[in-house]
Amino acid sequence: MIMNNIFKYWGKARQDKNGEWNYHLLPYHCLDVAAVGRNLLECQPALLQQFANLSRIDSKPFLRWTTFLLAIHDIGKFADGFQNMQPDLLNLLQKRSIQSSSNEHHSSLGYRFCEECLTSLLVDNENVDDLWDLLQPWINAVTGHHGQPPQLDLSPPPIQMQFHEHVRNDALGFIQGIIPVLLQNGLPFRLDAYDRYYEIFPRVSWLLAGLTVLADWIGSNREWFPYYDKPMPLTDYWHDVALPQAKTAVAECGLTVQAIAPFSGMRMLFPAISSLTPLQQLAEKTEIVEGPQLFIIEEVTGGGKTEAALTLAHRLMDKGMVDGLFIALPTMATANAMYKRIQEMYLKLFSENSHPSLILAHSASRMVLDMEQKNLVDKGYGHNDSSASQDCTVWLSDSRKKSLLAHVGVGTIDQTLLAILAVRHQSLRLLGLARKVLIVDEVHACDAYVHRLLCTLLKFHASQGGMAILLSATLPQAMRAELINSFANGLEIKDVTTKKNDYPLLTHFSQTEEIQEVPVAARKALSRTVKVQPLYSSDEVNEVLQEMLDADGCACWVRNTVYDAMQSYREWVDRLGKDGVMLFHARFTMCDRLRIEDEVIRCFGLKSTTCDRQKKLLIATQVVEQSLDLDFDFMVSDLAPIDLLIQRAGRLQRHARGQRKQPVLGVYMPQLVEKPGKDWFKKVFPKASRVYDHHGHLWLTAKWLCKHQGFTMPENAREMIESVYGESSQVTIPNDLQLLEDQADGKDMADKSQARFNSLNLHEGYQATMTQWQDDVSAPTRLGEPTVTVRLARWDGNQLVSWSKENTGHDWELSQITVRKSQIAKEDTNNLPTCAVEIYHTGYIFVDIM
User: Is 799 a residue whose pLDDT tops 90?
Assistant: First the structure.
């Protein structure tokens, strides 16, 4: 009778236009999800082994145990509160109605039901409390399949109010019915090893939660799992329906492992490289050991860091240690540029008949890809021709939450940091990284908050068997040590000491060997001296820029704020006209920013011609200093921290273009004095004084540059960085600036504390926290002044239309800009056809308020 009763509960349902109910029985949905999870692990044996290693359970028992747990993920849906969400369907199936119900989510109801009833089904002894301690992380993971752990009230109503006796018996009957099918050999662990498993199981829960979310998403898709409402034996449904459909679904989702191409040298990946740099040679031959490992590559711009990282990644893939990679970059612009580079070569990582997925992942990635597709069509290519999206599985690319599941991904660092914040579906991101090489470029660009989050991510990644490669041209020693020790902490290793101060340097850390710090021979072609020309007024800057333009050269002025860039742009437009000067910053609407980014790369990139570059001036902000392959004859930069100036100088005469004079970096700075006042920097750069609040670091930067009047890379790289960030340098900061430095240090400490508070705790496992789990669009991957998103619009005489006219289907999104709330003066709806917002310095902008 009980087995018949379990078919009176719906799991998925919808009403057609005629009012007829289409529904999928709850036991079937539970088995669908279990079948998907089982197939995901079976078709990825290395991932299954990784789970097994983490849990200290052999792979076959682990597979059976996980399949069983996935089958009870929705046990809370037996509760009256869920079934009564569709009262008519409840009455149709159970011939009863419920007068009152509960708002408690079925995930927490399922957790509480398991807490009360599950142990007695699994063991027949008195140690049920010990068993629940061990079961808790697993049950948190599978019942928290809606993107967050079950949220439990401190004083919830008795579970019997939702599981009356007959409902309780039916739910228990379902579990009893699947145990012989899925868990024939009982528990895969022993209670007498309680202490061992009590520490281990919470760590496994992070990945199991991600697997459950993924399995539930796939198992809920009607295209793969059509509704069944006719009772049949659970064994028959499992073998004849759930398992075959799961195999089809997983394959069509693009989640099967792709065969890796054998590694045969870097030139297989990059045939255009005629001779390898010393770093690239080292990447080809450095020893790859077993287990989780971290590489840190410190090399000058142009030294081939990206190619070296991809070579190491391919070697790890070839050894079966990972199945793919994700490259994290500091900005959308750098992610877009890297995506275009990876598009050209990623297929070479995989065997010839493989079909790996490639995904661009950031907040505007879908728009970027759609615009790229439109551009191809506009140029005469068909929709079936080579495009950015043809190798992206549609199901994977329809949400950033799934982007890390792709075989190869490129995106902003934010997409990875969300994996360790209390945001919905973070566990899915962790799962996506589990069998990936995590490559983080421009690591030095992280502020105190992001750096702390990255350290936590490395700890999580290492603990789950992950591999990571970090890249930087200007990494302070203290930051390098923190990154290494964070990864080591994930492996339960304490106090790793770095010893070498060489530059360039390849650092290799693993669980099985002592840390390796290998000096890299400097590439002679990259060794160059850059002259530094201090400039103490905007008139001096304008004069030297004009001289370069008059000599038919091209130049760039990197300003520290958008406001300063706009002011300089207006002045130079008056001088040269709009054809001679370009403006590039991060606060354009997306449609304009992508267009300008492409134009900047066309005019100043690797393939730019003399005609493209001649007499052209770019006024830009920090968007040009990271990962964009740009090349200027002359550059001026506002005074910035020394590591950023090195980065900016990397865009100065980057490529060989015939005979050019010695590269010169003009640095617009305040006069260097021995005893500067607190307003030393602020008097010259009032806006930028809030962007770079370590004014002592800026003074140390100016001091070193004025003393040496230039620098030679890579010989001076380490000296320059440590002259500003080294402990011995801090004591030389003048007193008035030291007060500001102490304030900035205090803010950094507060930001790090905020990062620790916002980060998840690896050891606690996947469970509810004091921090409210929120959607990823509002997750704090970066700190800063509150912002508001507005949409620019045009009045066409009759109605408001979007600023963008790209016709991609995303025109309103492409018309968005994000501005600080302090820049919004007021909302005015008095005399306008729709609302408007007054934004300082830009006048009135019609907007669609979000």
Answer: no
Per DSSP, the residues of 411-432 read: EEHHHHHGGGBSBTTHHHHHHH
Give the amino acid at 458. L
Q: 3-class secondary structure for 19-51?
A: CCEEEEEHHHHHHHHHHHHHHHHHCCHHHHHHH
Pairing of strands 528-535, 664-668: parallel
Predicted confidence at residue 17, as pLDDT, reads 82
Mean pLDDT of the chain: 88
pLDDT at position 654 is 86
622-634 per-position pLDDT tens digit: 988 876 789 999 9
Which residues have a Cβ under 8 Å from the Cβ of 283 and sit 6 or more positions away?
Answer: 266, 307, 308, 309, 311, 312, 506
Cis ω on the peptide bond leading into residue 476 (within 30° of 0)?
no
C-alpha–C-alpha distance, residues 708 and 736, integer Å: 24
Q: Is 185 exposed, middle or buried (0-12, 13-18, 19+ CB in 10 A)?
A: exposed
Q: Which of 292-296, 332-336, 435-439, 845-849 has the lowest mean pLDDT?
A: 845-849
Distances (CA, A) of 600 to 333, 343, 507, 637, 818: 11, 20, 35, 17, 22
Cβ neighbours of residue 239 closer than 8 Å, sequence gap 6 or more? none
| Residues 655, 502: Cα–Cα separation, whole Å | 26
DSSP 241: I
Q: How far apart are CA 426 and CA 437, in angstroms?
A: 18
Q: Give the E-state strand segments of 291-348 in sequence order.
A: 293-298, 324-329
The dihedral formed by the CA atoms of 797, 798, 799 and 800, expressed in degrees to the nearest 10: 0
Which amino acid belongs to residue 17? K
Higher model confidence: residue 166 or residue 385?
166
Give me the sheet containing 555-558, strands edge to edge: 581-584, 617-620, 555-558, 634-638, 664-668, 528-535, 710-713
Distance CA 715, CA 529 (A): 10
- Higher pLDDT: 849 or 126? It is 126
DSSP reduced 3-state for 181: helix
Q: pLDDT class for 848, splitting at 50, 70, 90?
A: very low
**Helix, strand, coil content of the chain in percent (nearest 5):** 50, 15, 35
Q: How many CA atoms lie within 13 A of 153 on its CB side?
A: 9
Please report the pLDDT score of residue 383 as a whole number.
38
| Residue 648 to residue 630: CA distance in whole angstroms | 10
Q: Looking at residues 675-691, what average pLDDT do you find?
A: 95
Q: Band the pLDDT of 792: cuts 50, 70, 90.
A: confident
Q: How far apart are CA 393 and CA 411, in angstroms?
A: 17
Tell me the DSSP string of 655-671.
S--SS-PPPEEEEE-PP
Q: Is 10 helix (H, G, I), strand (E, B) or coil?
A: strand
> In the chain, pLDDT over 70 holds for what percent of residues?
91
- How many Å apart are CA 343 and CA 260, to the nearest integer? 17
